[in-house]
Amino acid sequence: MLMYSDSFEKETFKETVKDNVKALFRKQIEEATPQQIFQAVSYAVKEIIIDDWLTTQAEYRKKDAKTVYYMSMEFLMGRALGNNLINMTAYKEVREALEEMNIDLNVIEDQEPDAALGNGGLGRLAACFLDSLATLNYPAYGCGIRYRYGMFKQKIENGYQVETPDDWLKEGNPFELRREEYAKEVRFGGTIRFEKDPETGKDTFIQENYESVRAVPYDMPIVGYGNHVVNTLRIWDAEAITNFSLDSFDRGDYHKAVEQENLAKRIVDVLYPNDNHYAGKELRLKQQYFFISASLQALIAKYKKHHDDIRKLYEKVAIQMNDTHPTVAVPELMRLLIDVEGLDWEEAWEVTTKTCAYTNHTIMAEALEKWPMDLFSRLLPRIFQIVQEIDRRFISEIRAKYPGQEEKVEKMSILWGGQVRMAHMAIIAGYSVNGVARLHTEILKGQELKDFYEMMPEKFNNKTNGITQRRFLLHGNPLLADWVTGRIGDGWITDLSKLENLKVLVNDEQARREFMQIKYKNKVRLAKYIKEHNGINVDPRSIFDVQVKRLHEYKRQLLNILHIMYLYNQIKEHPEMSFYPRTFIFGAKAAAGYLRAKETIKLINSVADVVNNDRSINGKLKIVFIEDYRVSNAELLFAAADVSEQISTASKEASGTGNMKFMLNGAPTLGTMDGANVEIVEEVGAENAFIFGLSSQEVINYENNGGYNPVDIYFNDWELKRVIDQLMDGTYSGGDHNMYRNLYNSLLNTQCTDRADTYFILKDFRSYVEAQKKVEAAYRDENRWSKIAMMNTACSGKFTSDRTIEEYVKDIWKLEKVGVSLVQ
Ligand code: 26Q
C-alpha cells in the first residue's frame, strides 16, 4: 500500500506512475505526453488519498460527529494536484521522485485545467473554507453543482474580451469519484393535489404531472494539511430518469428519448458568469433547487441511517448557505420534513430554524436575488406554497411586534410586489446571519438590514473572511515559504498568527535583503510568464502594481487606468521629470453581457498598446493585461506584486480576499477604507498602507442626500478633464470617437444613468493620485519599502481562513474536532 508523509515510498510511487501510464494509455513512461503523465501521477496520488478518505469517514461515523454542510453554487477550487501534494506533505518527495524520471512537476501541474466552478470571491472563499475545515479536523461537506462548463476562458482579441467555453472535463477528472448509489430524484413543475389522510387526518400534498431529473453525485477529496483528514466536496450532475431509453426506443421514439436526456443535462450545463449581479433566469433557479433538493435528501438519508428522531437533526447537522443562492434550502427542508417525514409545521420549523444559517456577501441592490412569483410558483409549486406560509406567519409576527406599523410588512415580508425576496427568507429562517468583514456587517446592521437587525439582533454576527496560506503561500510562493520556515519554523502553515515572529526581523538588514531578493525572483518568474503570454518585456526592477479581480464598476479598474493615462500625459509633457519605472498589471473577466466592463477591458488594452509602444518614454511605463485571470495564474501574481490595488468605492466591497493574498505575500495595500481593507490597515498600521478616498459614511451620505456633481470637478481640474476627454478624442481608439462613449457617459452624463459617476471616480481621483505619489516615494527608499513589505507579511496572520473557520465553528456550527490516526 502507498502511504504518505512519514511513510511515503518513493520507489513504489514511481512504479505506480509507470503502471498507470501503461494501464491508462498503453505506453511506456518515456513515450507519454505531459498530459498523460499528469493523469498517471494524479491517479497514483488519489490511490494514496483513498485510504485516509475511508478512515476519516469511518472515524466521523464512529464519533457520530456533527457535520457542517456548506451549500454553495460556486466552488472555485483551481488545480487539485499540487494542492493535494502540499497538504499530504509529499510535495517535495514527489517532485524528487519525478525528477528521477526526468519529469518536471511544474510542467505536470500545468497540464491540469483549473476547476473553475465559481466566479470570483464567493466561490474562492468556499474553496478556502473547505481547505481549512479539513486541516482543522472538522467534519464537513461542500455541496454544489458539477457544471459541465465552468467559468468561461477569456481570450483577448484586438483588445476585446472573447469568451470561449471552459471544457474542463474533456480529459477526464482523475480526482473525482462517481457515486451512482447515492443518486436522487428531483422534481420540477406540475400541480399540487391536496388530500386528507383518512387514517391520521393529516393534510397530504401530492405533486402530479411534474418533470423529474436524476441527480448523481461526484465526490472530490478535500485533503487536510498533514493530519490524514480527507473531507468531501460533493457536486451533482443531472441525468434523465432512466428506463426512458428502452421504453421510448421500443416505441420507436428515439428522438424524444434523446431530447429528454438533453433537457435534463441542460440544468448543469454552465456556471452563470455573473459576479455580484442577479440575473432572473429560470434555468438558474432550476440549478439552485436541483442541487439543494439532492443535497438535502442525501443528508437526511445519511442522518436517518443511524438516528431515528428527525426532530433532532440540528444536533448533528448545520447547513450554511453561501449567500442567498442556496436559500431554497429553507422551504425544501420544510417540505422534506413535513411531506416526507411527517412532521407538523411547528416541528419542522423548529428543526429548519435550528439548522440553517446564512452568510451575506453584498449590499449592492443589483446583486439581490428577487424571483418573480409566477416563475417561482410555476417551477416549484409546492415550495411556493411553503414560502407563502412562512411569509404569512412572519407577517403576523411583525404585526404583533409592531402594531400599526404596516410599512414594516412592506419592508420585511418575503413576498412583495410580485417577487420572492430570497434574502428575507434566509434571514427569517436562519439562526445566524453574518457579514464577511466588520465594516460590511456594521453597514448591514445599520442600513440595509436595519429592520431585521432591530427585530432579531441576536442573529447578526460578523465573520471576517480569510484565505488559506497553504495554497497562497506554501504552494504559490515556495521561495518565501521556505524562507519563512527557515526563520521562524513551519508552525505558520497551520497557525498563521506565528507570522508575527517575523516582526522583529523587520529591523534586521540581512533579513530584509533576503526578503526583497525573493520578491525580485518572483518578479522575474512573472516577467517570464508575461513574456511568454503577452510578448511584452517588463523590467523586474520596476514597481509591479497589480489589480486582479473580476471587472466591475464598483471595483474601479477605470480609476486605475485613468490614472495611468494621467501619468502618461505627465511623462510626455515633462520628459525630464523623475519617474520611477512602473509596470501596471491587470487581470479581470467581465460578465459576458456587461457592456461597460467590456469597454474597460478594451480601454486598458488600448492604452497598453499606445504606451508600451511609445519609445520616447524609455520604458518608464508598461501596462500588461493578463489573459484568463484564474486561480492558477493568480498564485504567480500575488507572489510577484509590489503594490496591491484595492480601490473599490467605499462601502461597496463587502470584504475582498485578494487584498489578503497580496498582504500575505508582502505587497502593501493601495486602497480605500472598504471591506476588509479596514482590518488590514488595523493590523499592519497606517504607515504600512496607502489609503485614499471617501469613507464609506461619506459615500452613503452622498447617496442619501445628493450633493455630488462630477461635472464641477471635471471643469475645475484640467488634467483630469484632459484624461476624460481622451476617452472621446480618439487618442486610444485610432480616431474612433464612439469606442468609449459608454464609459464617458457613465462618468459625466446624467441622462444615461440615474446619476453620473455613481462610483465616485472623479471625486476620489486626486486623492488616488496623491496616494500613488506616496507609493513611489516609499519605493524609492529601499529600506523603508522593505520594511513595509515585510511588515505586511508579518501582520497578515489574522487573515487565514483557519481563523475564520474557528469563529464559524465556535459561534455558529458548534462542531467538535475529530482526529484521524494513521492506518498501517
Ligand atoms: C446571482 C443570481 C443570478 C446569477 C448570479 C448571481 C451571483 C453570482 C455570484 C451573485 C453574486 C455572485 C458573487 C458574489 C461575490 O463573489 N461576492 C464577493 O464575496 C467575497 C467573499 O465574501 C467578498 O470578499 C467580496 O467582497 C464580494 O464581492
UniProtKB/TrEMBL annotation:
Record function comment: Phosphorylase is an important allosteric enzyme in carbohydrate metabolism. Enzymes from different sources differ in their regulatory mechanisms and in their natural substrates. However, all known phosphorylases share catalytic and structural properties. Allosteric enzyme that catalyzes the rate-limiting step in glycogen catabolism, the phosphorolytic cleavage of glycogen to produce glucose-1-phosphate, and plays a central role in maintaining cellular and organismal glucose homeostasis.
EC number(s) reported in the record: 2.4.1.1
Coiled-coil portions: none
Residue positions where N6-(pyridoxal phosphate)lysine is found in the record: 661
Single GO MF descriptor: pyridoxal phosphate binding
Gene Ontology BP terms: glycogen catabolic process
One of the Pfam families matching this protein, by short name: Phosphorylase
Protein name stated in the entry: Alpha-1,4 glucan phosphorylase
Entries under InterPro entries matching the protein: Glycg_phsphrylas, Glyco_trans_35, Pyridoxal_P_attach_site
Keyword Glycosyltransferase: yes
Family (UniProt): Belongs to the glycogen phosphorylase family.
Record-linked PROSITE patterns: PHOSPHORYLASE
Species: Faecalicatena contorta
Keywords in alphabetical order: Allosteric enzyme, Carbohydrate metabolism, Glycosyltransferase, Pyridoxal phosphate, Transferase
Tagged with keyword Ion transport: no
Catalysed transformations (reactions): [(1->4)-alpha-D-glucosyl](n) + phosphate = [(1->4)-alpha-D-glucosyl](n-1) + alpha-D-glucose 1-phosphate
Gene Ontology cellular component terms for the protein in this record: cytoplasm
Cofactor requirement: pyridoxal 5'-phosphate
